[in-house]
Task: inverse folding
C-alpha cells in the first residue's frame, strides 16, 4: 500500500506552522512557532486559512464544494466515481487555543492529497479533505456545529440564528457565513453530499498516551457525557452577624455537591467535575444568596452515565434536605456514547501496528466530542487516530505534539486511507 | 433623667427618610420610602447630606469642627467646658446599601440635640454628634477608615493615598476630600480633639434580636475576625480527557477546604465562611488551574480565633498533601476582639431595662466592626445599642427596621447620653 508512497519529511509540520500565521497569538517560548492560536470560527483569520486551503487543493486538481453552512469538501478524483473517503476535522480554534487541535486533522488530509500528487498516485475512489465549520463552539456557542447540520442532527435555520458570544456586537452564524463568503451552494446534507468514510487524526488532548509511552491511540468511540446546571438560591447575610445555624449558604452547599460528584464518579469509574461556577454577590463578608454551577460528567457507556446521574440526584437531594437552600437541576446538554465503525477501527489498528508496533498502540475512548461523532450519526463508517499531547494539555496556547509524533500519526492516517480505499468495492 | 424630656414622635424616622433623597436607589416596594441607598463616601450625594447636617446642627447653636480627614464634630454646649459626650456613626453607605446602617446612628445623635433644644435642656457637659468618614470602605477600600485615623491606628498620609475602586477614573481620598470641601482644619487626633465617651445606635445587621423577639441589644464588644486569602494553583486540563487520578483540580480542593472551615468553626462555636471565590478559566470543560478565595473567620475571643486558625492551617495542609495543587496562604486582615467600656455597657443596660423591660434586652457581641472599635482603640469609653434588623438583612436595599423599633432604640440612646452626662464629674 502506501509503503510505496514517498512522503516529503516535515512538509506537514511546516504547513501547520505556516498557516498558523492566521491567528497566531500568546507567545510562550523563544521560537517563532512557540505560540498559541486565536482563530475563531468564520473570523477574518479563519477566512484567510479557508481561502488558502481552497487554493492549495485546487492546485492539486481537487473539485471544491462549499456547503450552505460553510463546510469545505476538497475532492481528489479517483479511478472510479463514488462518494469520497474523507479526512476531516476543523480549522477553527478556541480563543486561547493551540496549533494542533483540529488543524492537524485538516492539514494532514491536505498532506495526503499532496502525497498522492507527488507520487502520481490515483486512488480507486475519490478522497476528500473536509473542513467542518465551528467545531469548537467558541464563537458561536454550539460545538460540533456544522457537521451536525450535515448529519441531519441539527436544523440549519436554528443554527443560522445562533449569535456570536465573542464579538462586541454579536452577529449570527448566517451573517458571519455571508460576510466572509462561505455560505456555499451545496446543500448541507449527508444524503445529497455523501461521504463513504470519515477518518480524523487528532491530538489526544489528555495525558494517557504520554504517560503510557504509546505513539498511537486507536480510538474506538467517544464517551457519553452530560452537562447539568445546578442553581442554588439561599439568603445574602452578613458573615459576621449571622449564626451558623441561621444561614442559607449556597456556596457551602455547592462545595458539598462538588465533593459528592467527585466521589460518585470515581466510584463508577467515570469522570466528573465542577469547573464553571458563579457566586453572587461574591463579596468576602456577604454569604452568597446565589451559586450557579455546571456539572460535567462522563462515562464510557450510556448505562454508566445514567447510574452516575441517578446517584448524583439522590445524594444532592440529601444535601439540600433540611436546609433553606432551594435547588434547580437542569440538564443542559447530553451526548450518548459514540461507537466508531469496527472495520475502520481494525484498519487503523493494523496500519498502526505495521508502523509503530502493536506495543506502541493503545485502543482508547475519546474523552472529548469530535466531528467524527457527527459522521457516525450520519452512519458513515468512521474512526479516529490519536497522537500524544504533551502534559495532556489542550485548549491552551502551550498545547504541543512533537514533529516526530505528528509524522507517525500522519503515516498511520495515510496508510489507513489507502487501505480503506483499496478495499472498497462499493 | 430624660423621662422629663419631651420627644417629638416620628421626627427621627422622618429625618431618615427625608435625607435619604441624597442617594436613594433600588426601589423594592410601593411606598416612596421603600428604596435602598447608594451614597458612597465623599461623593456628591454624601456632600449634600453632610452640608445639611452642618446646617441643621448650626441652627441648634452647635459649633461644628471638620477635621483633616473629613470627620464632622457638631458640638452642643453644656453648662461646663469639657470633651464632648459623642453620639457617632456614619452617613456613607454600601453601593447597594440600605437606609439605616450608620445613618440611624448619626441622625439619632442629631435628634438628641434637637430634643435638648426643644426642651430648653442644657447638659452638664458638651454633647456632640459625629459623622465618621468612610466607615463602609466601599468607595475607598479601607473600612472604619477615618475614625481609625482619629484614633491614631492609621497614618493619615497612607489613608490620603488610597484610591477609589468605584469610580471609572479612580481618585484618592485626599482628592475626594478636597473636591467636596471636607478637608477641614482640625487635626484628626483623639488627643487634640478628644471625646469623653462614644455611643452608637446601630441596626443589628443579623437575625438574633428578631428571632429571640428582643427590642434592644446591649452590645458588649465586637468579635475578633480574620480574612485569610487562599490561592490554589493546579493544572488546566480537559474534563473529558483527563483521568480523575491525573488531575490537579483547584476547585475540588477549594470545595474540600470550604467544608473543613465550616466544620472547624462550628466546633469552636465561631463563624466561618467562604463567600468570595474566583475560579479560572471558569469554563465548564476545563479543570480550573487557579482558584482563589477568602476565608472569613470570627470568634468572640482572640484565643478562640487563634484556635480556629491553627486548626484550619493543619487540616488544610492535610487536604493539599499528596496532590499536585500548590497553595498560598495569606492573612489579609485581622481585628482583635474589642471590649466596650463596662460603665457605658451598664448605663445602656439600665436605660434599656427601664424602657423595654429587662426580658426584652439581650447582652450581645457585634459580629461586624464599627467606628466604636476606633473610639475604644483611642481609649474613649464606648458602647453600642442594637435594634432588630428584619430578616437579619443588611448591606442590601431591603434592609429594614420598623419605626417602633427605631423609636425604642432612640429612647435608650437618649437616656444613655443624659445618664452618662449627669454622672460626669470629669
Result:
Amino acid at each position: 500500500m502506501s509503503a510505496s508512497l514517498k512522503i516529503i519529511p516535515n512538509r506537514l509540520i511546516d504547513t501547520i506552522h505556516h498557516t498558523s500565521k492566521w491567528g497566531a497569538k500568546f507567545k510562550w517560548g523563544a521560537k517563532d512557532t512557540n505560540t498559541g492560536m486565536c482563530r475563531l470560527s468564520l473570523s477574518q483569520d479563519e477566512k484567510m486559512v479557508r481561502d488558502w486551503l481552497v487554493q492549495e487543493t485546487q492546485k492539486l486538481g481537487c473539485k471544491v464544494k462549499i456547503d450552505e453552512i460553510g463546510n469545505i469538501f476538497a475532492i481528489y478524483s479517483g479511478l472510479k466515481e463514488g462518494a469520497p473517503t474523507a479526512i476531516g476535522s476543523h480549522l477553527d480554534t478556541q480563543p486561547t487555543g493551540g496549533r494542533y487541535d483540529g488543524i492537524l486533522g485538516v492539514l494532514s488530509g491536505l498532506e495526503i492529497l499532496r502525497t498522492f500528487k507527488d507520487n502520481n498516485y490515483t486512488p480507486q475512489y475519490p478522497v476528500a479533505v473536509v473542513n467542518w465549520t465551528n467545531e469548537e463552539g467558541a464563537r458561536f456557542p454550539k460545538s460540533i456545529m456544522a457537521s451536525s447540520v450535515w448529519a441531519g442532527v441539527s436544523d440549519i435555520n436554528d443554527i443560522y440564528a445562533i449569535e456570536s458570544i465573542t464579538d462586541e456586537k454579536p452577529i449570527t452564524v448566517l451573517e458571519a457565513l455571508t460576510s466572509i463568503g462561505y455560505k456555499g451552494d451545496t446543500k448541507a446534507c449527508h444524503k445529497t453530499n455523501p461521504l463513504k468514510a470519515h477518518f480524523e487524526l487528532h491530538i489526544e488532548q489528555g495525558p494517557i498516551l504520554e504517560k503510557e509511552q504509546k505513539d498511537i491511540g486507536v480510538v474506538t468511540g467517544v464517551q457519553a457525557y452530560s452537562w447539568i446546571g445546578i442553581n442554588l438560591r439561599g439568603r445574602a447575610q452578613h458573615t459576621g452577624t449571622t449564626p451558623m445555624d441561621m444561614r442559607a449558604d449556597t456556596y457551602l452547599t455547592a462545595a458539598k455537591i462538588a465533593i459528592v460528584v467527585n466521589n460518585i464518579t470515581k466510584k463508577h469509574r467515570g469522570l466528573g467535575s465542577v469547573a464553571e461556577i458563579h457566586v453572587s454577590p461574591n463579596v468576602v463578608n456577604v454569604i452568597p444568596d446565589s451559586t450557579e454551577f455546571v456539572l460535567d460528567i462522563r462515562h464510557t457507556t450510556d448505562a454508566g452515565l445514567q447510574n452516575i446521574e441517578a446517584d448524583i440526584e439522590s445524594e444532592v437531594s440529601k444535601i439540600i434536605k433540611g436546609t433553606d437552600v432551594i435547588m434547580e437541576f437542569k440538564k443542559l446538554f447530553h451526548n450518548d456514547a459514540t461507537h466508531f465503525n469496527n472495520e475502520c477501527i481494525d484498519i487503523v489498528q493494523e496500519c498502526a501496528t505495521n508502523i509503530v508496533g502493536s506495543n506502541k498502540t493503545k485502543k482508547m475512548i475519546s474523552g472529548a466530542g469530535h466531528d467524527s461523532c457527527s459522521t457516525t450519526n450520519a452512519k458513515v463508517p468512521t474512526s479516529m487516530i490519536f497522537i500524544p499531547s504533551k502534559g495532556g494539555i489542550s485548549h491552551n496556547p502551550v498545547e504541543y505534539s512533537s514533529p516526530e509524533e505528528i509524522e507517525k500519526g500522519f503515516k498511520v492516517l495515510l496508510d489507513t486511507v489507502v487501505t480503506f480505499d483499496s478495499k472498497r468495492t462499493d
Notes: Chain A touches chain B through 62 residues (CB under 8 Å). The radius of gyration of chain A is 23 Å.
